[in-house]
Design brief:
This protein is an alpha+beta fold. It folds into two domains: about 250 residues, 3-Layer(aba) Sandwich (Rossmann fold), CATH 3.40.50; about 90 residues, no CATH class. The strands form three sheets. Strands 1, 2, 4, 5, 6, 7 and 8 form a seven-stranded antiparallel sheet that branches. Strands 9-13-14-3-15-16 form a six-stranded mixed sheet, sandwiched between helices. Strands 10-12-11 form a three-stranded antiparallel sheet, covered by helices on one side.
Length: about 375
């Protein structure tokens, strides 16, 4: 498991040391760095996945497109380079990347594993020196980063048909969930982790995805049919046993926005990494809270989850999962991001106890309801 992520001169961070847990919630103000944390991991992931042998970090690929060197180096304190360090249960892994203004990829200037470092390496496999990659711990890290699943906030909407991809080439849902239905189709009979299997349905991926969707949308039923003589599949949805199946466009955006997240989680194996942006999109508050509990269940099953969210209901769902014992408080960290300032820390990390209580609520940390309530009660001033 990844236990810490350090960034130096990356985007809006001069220096960040961020503890990670089985479930890490990233919250806070817009444009404060939450997405940058996920993007740092995705840069490593897409480079390892798309370029097995390379000494350059790919800033633009299938997972993410960040532009050129000036777009990723802290423009206040950085110059031409930035650093990413990861700590897991065994070692610290670090990379220094360097480039020129027009570069759309950056050279690996230094790579370190534990106490060993290589300057200006002339050969790397999965961004690690081949001799270091022979170590079991380094190989395990590379495997987890290559297999990482990233689901962005910009997920595809309802489609009349979904492309079927070669399962040997595409085995994750894709950053926009564009491969989710294909992954579900080809892996429909694959078993789901025991700790994520809900009662009342077989343990196969298709039936468990359907069963999990019912916790978010009561009576939800799925129907997958391969189109004749075409590399495509249709998805039928219904939310009542009294109706037939409908095209996704007729069942509301919430279902198709949640479906890639559910498929990604139930397709994962123990030790995998799942990054999710804004799982609350198009969900009713009760569904947002249930999504928080689901993320807790995924983490408890041994899949490391990093969630960026603006929803206090998602946080409440996680807190309820902790209070009811679905996930231990020591397996959750919450980070609140603020814009960079000289007189306050950029990231604050409120602690959660075994009852789901949070020890501090910094200004802006899911307190807008209280502020608005106090204003209408005549206890506060209008800030707008």
């Amino acid at each position: 498991m990844l236990t810490r992520l350090d960034l130096r001169f990356f985007k809006c961070f001069e220096r960040l040391q961020l503890p990670l847990a089985p479930l890490t919630l990233l919250t806070g103000l817009n444009a404060s760095g939450k997405s940058s944390v996920l993007q740092a991991l995705v840069l490593l992931h897409q480079t390892m996945r798309e370029h097995e042998w390379t000494t350059r970090l790919s800033l633009n690929g299938a997972g993410i497109r960040l532009g050129a060197m000036p777009d990723v180096v802290d423009e206040v304190f950085g110059r031409r380079s930035f650093e990413i360090e990861l700590m897991d249960d065994e070692n610290m892994y670090g990379w220094t990347f360097e480039g020129d203004r027009r570069d759309m990829s950056m050279a690996v200037q230094r790579v370190a594993v534990g106490g060993r470092a290589v300057e200006a390496p002339d050969s790397l496999r999965y961004l690690l020196p081949p001799d270091m990659l022979s170590e079991a711990t380094a190989a395990a890290l590379a495997r987890r980063l290559r297999g990482l699943t990233y689901v962005t906030a910009e997920r595809v909407g309802p489609q009349a048909t979904y492309a079927l991809e070669d399962p040997h080439d595409v085995n994750v849902v894709g950053p926009q969930g564009e491969h989710a239905v294909s992954v579900l189709h080809w892996g429909r009979d694959e078993p789901v982790l025991a700790d994520l299997t809900l009662p009342g349905a077989p343990a196969s991926r298709f039936r468990q995805v359907e069963q999990r969707m019912r916790t978010l949308f009561p009576d939800c039923t799925l129907d997958l049919q391969q189109a004749p003589r075409a590399n495509a599949v249709t998805l039928g949805l219904r939310t009542s046993d009294d109706t037939g199946f409908h095209l996704p466009a007729h069942t509301g955006f919430g279902l198709t926005q949640c479906l890639p997240i559910v498929i990604a989680a139930l397709s994962a194996s123990e030790g995998d990494i799942l990054l999710v942006e804004n799982p609350e999109i198009h969900l009713h508050p009760a569904g947002q809270a249930e999504m928080g509990r689901f993320m807790a269940d995924v983490a408890q099953a041994g899949i490391q989850v990093l969630v960026e969210t603006h929803s206090d209901h998602v946080l409440s769902g996680v807190r309820r999962a902790v209070k009811t014992g679905r996930l231990g408080a020591d397996r959750v960290v919450v980070h609140f991001f603020r814009r960079r300032s000289e007189d306050q820390p950029q990231v604050v990390s409120p602690a959660m106890d075994d009852s789901g209580n949070i020890d501090s609520w910094p200004d802006g940390f899911f307190d807008q309801f209280d502020k608005d309530t106090n204003y209408f009660a005549g206890w506060g001033e209008d800030e707008y």
